[in-house]
TrEMBL record:
<keyword id="KW-0472">Membrane</keyword>
<keyword id="KW-1133">Transmembrane helix</keyword>
<protein>
    <submittedName>
        <fullName>Uncharacterized protein</fullName>
    </submittedName>
</protein>
<feature type="transmembrane region" description="Helical">
    <location>
        <begin position="86"/>
        <end position="110"/>
    </location>
</feature>
<feature type="transmembrane region" description="Helical">
    <location>
        <begin position="53"/>
        <end position="74"/>
    </location>
</feature>
<keyword id="KW-0812">Transmembrane</keyword>
């Protein structure tokens, strides 16, 4: 692979991220950064906040599981397609995402359980409007 191709890819990616940052309220930007996750609400317990993160991570786990299943079925019905390198790379990327989502879901569930049963379980509070990530 030529260095010029990598450089062009880097410039295109940098331009895309700059455009998404420049127009944060656009539909494309909101969809691209939908993975940000839940924010704590005022007077919410830490364990409840971690449980909401576990639910959020489980949603991503379901997305990756459906995508993996869909790609696996395509590879089963079209064996010639499953031998292509790009298909194997896509399947590998989805399996990595699936593993990360499983670990995130389990990690947040463990954190929520630890905070609920063993503590500390503080409340979020005293937010000013300027302290929020999204005004």
């Amino acid at each position: 692979m030529k260095v010029e191709n990598i450089f062009i890819f880097f410039l295109a990616l940098r331009l895309l991220l700059w455009l998404l940052h420049r127009y944060p309220r656009s539909i494309v930007s909101r969809v691209a950064f939908a993975w940000v996750g839940p924010l704590p609400t005022e007077q919410e317990l830490f364990a409840h906040f971690q449980l909401r993160w576990a639910i959020f991570s489980f949603g991503w786990l379901c997305h990756f599981a459906i995508t993996f299943t869909f790609l696996y079925m395509i590879g089963t019905y079209f064996p010639n397609l499953s031998e292509q390198v790009w298909f194997e790379v896509g399947l590998f990327a989805v399996s990595l995402g699936l593993g990360v989502a499983v670990l995130a879901t389990l990690g947040f569930l463990i954190k929520a359980g630890k905070a609920y049963w063993f503590g500390p379980n503080p409340r979020f509070g005293g937010f000013d409007q300027s302290d929020r990530a999204y005004n």
